Inverse folding.
């Protein structure tokens, strides 16, 4: 049985109601999703159904194979999920909470899927949308919103992760052109990107450059043997005197505030997304505890198991409420970076704790890809580190509290 509804971009699509998956509301003690508006619930249901029907049957294989198909991008674009929180240029223009809910439902399936979407929207499209020229916006944003063009974000370097101010990548002017040299590392979507937003040091400060695929001197190489975010393309970007025209530079920003503002956008999505991974682990543990029998009865009837589930429910509710609160604050105005740091640090840490506890409930079954728990647990170890390590967020929060910087 199915009925018609609208997707995040307003396009009518059929939604199946035949899935056997346990609905989160069944074990949502605080009924937090009741606080969502009807439009936000529509986004939730649309993304959840897409992930259930299109991604979940394959995600364990993709994780094991170390891939995520590029041809998912047009499908995600059709749903309005690429650059969904931006306005104009083919973007859906949904609100912060709806965007967060979409990230949550994507990451409930896999962190790699949410990374593909949030890198496209928050790290590649957002700087073009906010700092680009009208020509750059018109050229790239409609294609990227539709999933016809893929973007990536080049900031991190092999020797400069938490300290981007020390970046070695340089861009120098040569007549009216720019010449770009350096290496970027740990770049999601890197080798499949049609355009890379690359941040480089110049004589006037850090600038952003749009580097199309195929430019002479620009090459990529994928990073293999990862044990986390395997269902995600992660690459190095290499620039060997890449010559770019004057209009390749983003004209609207100079300095680190450019890339850091993009990271603030992306970290908001991670805050929400991590609660989806946590929820998936919690649901798996609850279902397993209800059905797995030892000593003649379900293990969910034992006090130690119920204690674990109670603490998992508490941590999940705390993270979900924090994400929702930050979303409502963002609706009222821009979030301060330390507010987003608090969200990212707290929610990812809670998600890791929930994943590890869920693994113990599943016992030996918890380390197989027949269940989602070990996949989420491994992914979350990477999520804890990328786009700001836990330690960096602790220092950002500490500086906001004391007014004293501990960075230098």
């Amino acid at each position: 049985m199915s009925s018609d509804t609208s997707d995040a971009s307003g396009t009518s699509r059929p939604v199946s109601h035949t899935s056997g998956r346990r609905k989160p509301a069944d074990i949502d003690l605080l009924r937090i999703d009741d606080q969502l508006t009807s439009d936000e619930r529509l986004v939730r249901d649309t993304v959840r159904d897409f992930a259930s029907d299109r991604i979940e049957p394959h995600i364990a294989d993709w994780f094991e194979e170390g891939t995520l198909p590029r041809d998912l991008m047009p499908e995600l674009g059709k749903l309005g999920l690429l650059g969904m929180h931006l306005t104009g240029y083919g973007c859906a223009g949904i609100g912060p909470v709806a965007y967060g809910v979409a990230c949550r439902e994507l990451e409930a399936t896999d962190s790699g899927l949410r990374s593909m979407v949030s890198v496209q929207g928050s790290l590649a499209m957002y700087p073009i949308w906010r700092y680009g020229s009208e020509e750059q916006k018109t050229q790239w944003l409609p294609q990227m919103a539709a999933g016809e063009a893929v973007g990536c974000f080049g900031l991190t370097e092999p020797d400069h992760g938490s300290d981007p101010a020390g970046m070695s990548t340089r861009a120098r002017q040569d007549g009216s052109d720019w010449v770009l040299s350096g290496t970027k590392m740990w770049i999601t979507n890197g080798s499949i990107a049609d355009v890379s937003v690359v941040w480089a040091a110049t004589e006037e400060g850090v600038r952003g450059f749009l580097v199309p695929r195929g430019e002479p001197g620009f090459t990529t190489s994928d990073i293999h043997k990862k044990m986390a975010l395997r269902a995600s393309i992660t690459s190095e970007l290499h620039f060997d005197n890449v010559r770019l025209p004057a209009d390749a530079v983003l004209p609207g920003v100079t300095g680190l505030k450019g890339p850091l503002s993009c990271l603030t956008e992306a970290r908001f999505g991670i805050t929400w997304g991590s609660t989806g991974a946590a929820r998936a682990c919690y649901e798996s543990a609850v279902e397993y505890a209800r059905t797995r029998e030892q000593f003649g009865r379900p293990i969910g009837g034992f006090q130690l198991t119920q204690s674990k589930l109670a603490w998992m429910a508490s941590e999940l509710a705390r993270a979900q409420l924090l994400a929702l609160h930050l979303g409502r604050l963002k609706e009222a105005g821009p979030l301060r970076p330390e507010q987003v740091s608090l969200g990212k640090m707290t929610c990812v840490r809670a998600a890791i704790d929930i994943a590890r506890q869920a693994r113990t409930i599943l016992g030996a079954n918890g380390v197989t890809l027949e269940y989602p728990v070990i996949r989420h647990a491994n992914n979350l170890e990477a999520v804890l580190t990328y786009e700001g390590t836990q330690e960096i967020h602790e220092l950002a929060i500490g500086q906001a509290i004391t007014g004293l910087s501990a960075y230098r």
Summary: Residues 1-25 have pLDDT under 50 and may be disordered. The longest helix spans residues 257-291.
